[in-house]
Design goal:
mainly alpha, cell shape, transmembrane helix, cell division, Cell wall synthesis protein CwsA, CwsA
């Protein structure tokens, strides 16, 4: 068995996560987060380049007005980011509490014990109501 020394890119990890079911959820999560981070970095670079090109091509007054508008829009987006992240992290369905899970586990064990007891008793032969046909006390 050889060790895999190459690091996977986010895309490769995402594809491998879809391929393998054992490590799938972990790789899917890491791949999706990596792709998202790369997308954010790429978008930030694009915005930076657009900002620099608009700064060079426009006069100072219109550039300041545009920058102020962009900063106001960015401030609104940044201020709503915590709420957006909180909404995305909220579970879609509620999970049962540990107490309910423990009670369900205990019920399964109890049903299993009763079933085992019933099956075991049904496999044992019933004692005969007749007296034994041979003498049960050994003779010397």
């Amino acid at each position: 068995m050889r060790a895999n020394t190459t690091r996977l890119s986010s895309r490769d990890r995402f594809v491998r996560g879809l391929k393998y079911s054992t490590v799938g959820p972990v790789d899917l999560t890491r791949g999706a987060v990596g792709i998202g981070a790369q997308s954010v970095g790429s978008s930030a670079g694009w915005v930076r380049d657009r900002y620099r090109s608009s700064k060079l091509s426009k006069d100072v007054a219109s550039t300041q007005a545009t920058i102020a508008q962009e900063l106001a829009a960015a401030a609104v987006a940044v201020s709503s980011l915590p709420q957006t992240i909180a909404d995305a992290r909220r579970p879609k369905r509620r999970r049962p509490s540990p107490l309910v899970l423990a009670a369900a586990g205990a019920a399964v064990v109890a049903v299993g014990a009763v079933t085992f007891s019933i099956v075991r008793r049904s496999t044992q032969p019933e004692p005969s109501p007749l007296p034994p046909s041979v003498d049960v006390t050994p003779r010397p």
